[in-house]
Automatic annotation (TrEMBL):
Taxonomy, superkingdom: Bacteria
Lineage, broadest ranks: Bacteria, Pseudomonadati, Pseudomonadota, Alphaproteobacteria, Rhodobacterales
The name this protein goes by in its record: DUF4202 domain-containing protein
PANTHER family linked to this entry: GLUTAMYL-TRNA SYNTHETASE (PTHR41729:SF1)
Length: 187
């Protein structure tokens, strides 16, 4: 791991340490970043530095844009998510510039964090696959406990559609899903 990558990862972790929301005794965004790095290392051990940075920075300072500041409903949710992606990209890109990364690498991280090129760009897709695995591994069960079976089915179907065929196949191998949910990953 290069010194400049270490500097960016430290900067992301330091920013996320300010999250007052706790999960498992840690700032929520910081824990999420560590989980993203762990899953990336497991799923894509040869990931580029830029992809490693994007994975760690996926939720950098997420708490700064409250969902409650956006309208209710799907349109408000999508606007909030898009604003989050832009914010994450801007923060990480600034950290990368400060650490000495070049314009091409910085913009690549920005594209990944804004999710520009899912299904077309291998690294953007890899990041999306990691995001989906992190959701399924650590956040799906608590989410499922709060929502109807119909909503859970829709969320699982949307998650599966975002994933690469290889990642969907791996989900079937790694997770013991009920048949109705597993069917979404077979399609």
């Amino acid at each position: 791991m290069s010194e400049r990558m270490q500097a960016v990862l430290r900067a992301i972790d330091a920013a996320n340490a300010a999250d007052r929301n706790l999960d498992d005794g840690m700032p929520e965004a910081q824990l999420y970043g560590k989980r993203m790095s762990e899953e990336l290392n497991r799923l894509f051990p040869e990931a580029s530095e830029v992809l490693q940075i994007a994975a760690r920075g996926q939720h950098v300072e997420r708490w700064k844009l409250a969902r409650s500041e956006y309208p209710e409903g799907r349109a408000g949710y999508l606007a909030w998510r898009k604003a989050q992606g832009v914010h994450h990209a801007e923060v990480v890109m600034g950290m990368m510039a400060k650490a000495g990364y070049g314009a091409e690498e910085i913009e690549a991280a920005g594209r990944m964090l804004r999710k520009e090129g899912i299904k077309r760009d291998a690294e953007v897709q890899a990041l999306e696959d990691v995001i989906c695995f992190v959701f399924l591994k650590w956040y799906f069960a608590p989410f499922a406990g709060k929502h109807s079976a119909e909503k859970i089915q829709r969320i699982v179907e949307k998650t599966a559609r975002k994933m690469s065929p290889e990642a969907r196949e791996r989900v079937l191998y790694e997770f013991d899903l009920p048949e109705d949910l597993a069917a979404a990953f077979r399609g």
